């Protein structure tokens, strides 16, 4: 009997042997976990190619999954909102600033120069020499309208940018043609017929351009469409009059140019007449199926 221990004593002996071993295993696992945690925090995770690990972000309802973890969208929004309250973000310029509309400026410069040139072409009061109008062609019709076209680029208006910038170039060219320092007229002094034909070629190019932009304006407003429609007839008659050297056709082109200018003045007034500041506001009537 003395050689055999009781079952309770054997159980206690087993517990005394196994318990230190289990405690050592738990401590070893905890140490490994702590060391692994510190390693993840202090050192960036890298892939096998020693490159940074990029986690994909996916959205499922009100949750975001990132790096195998799921986050509430509202929690992330609160964190971002807190960062945006920082003074560094408040110093940034506000992108929603309302910019002025440069289209009335382009209409003003074009309508003015179209009117004064058309009066000369129509030979109103017998005037046929436009040398006094050259500064207006170069600066108001040319530089200012070109500037208006560049401002249309800023606001993202591709059509107005193309039209105003192109006609700004036209007025600069027309001013240079009538400037003696460019010696254009003197170059054709011995052959005036060639001068008329070259001028007809120049006007023919603008006839084609005006037709294209007129077709592109068939769903805008009646004022803008009539401006381009009468301008198309103006260029066409001036082109024909230059080729055949007929003063009556040139005068007819001048009268259609006056009508084009009047349409431009009307569109200009509709653009700037604010009912809050004037008792005589005018409406820009849209064309059928217009999106304006």
The secondary-structure class comes to: mainly alpha
Strand order of the largest sheet: 1-2-3
Radius of gyration (CA) equals: 40 Å
Shape: elongated
Average pLDDT over all residues:
82
The number of helical elements comes to: 10
Low-confidence stretches at least 5 residues in length (pLDDT < 50)? Answer: 1-19, 33-44, 87-93
- Hey, roughly how much beta strand do the residues contain? under 5%
Helix content: 55-70%
Per DSSP E runs of 2 or more residues, the count of β-strands stands at: 3
**Tell me about the biggest sheet?**
3 strands, antiparallel
Order of helical and strand elements? HEEEHHHHHHHHH
CA-CA gap between termini: 111 Å
In short:
The longest helix is centred in the N-terminal third of the chain and has 36 residues, at 7-42.
Topology, please?
Elements: H1 7-42, E1 57-60, E2 63-66, E3 69-72, H2 73-84, H3 87-90, H4 103-121, H5 134-154, H6 158-177, H7 184-187, H8 192-215, H9 222-244, H10 247-272
Antiparallel strand pairs: 1-2, 2-3
Characterize the structure shown:
It is a multi-pass membrane protein. The chain crosses the membrane at residues 103-120, 132-156, 200-217, 224-244, 250-269. This is Ammonia (Ammonium) transport outward. This protein is mainly alpha-helical and 292 residues long. It has a domain at 103-272. It is built from 10 helices and 3 strands. It has helices spanning 7-42, 73-84, 87-90, 103-121, 134-154, 158-177, 184-187, 192-215, 222-244, 247-272, and strands at 57-60, 63-66, 69-72. It starts with 6 loop residues before the first helix and ends in a 20-residue tail after the last helix.
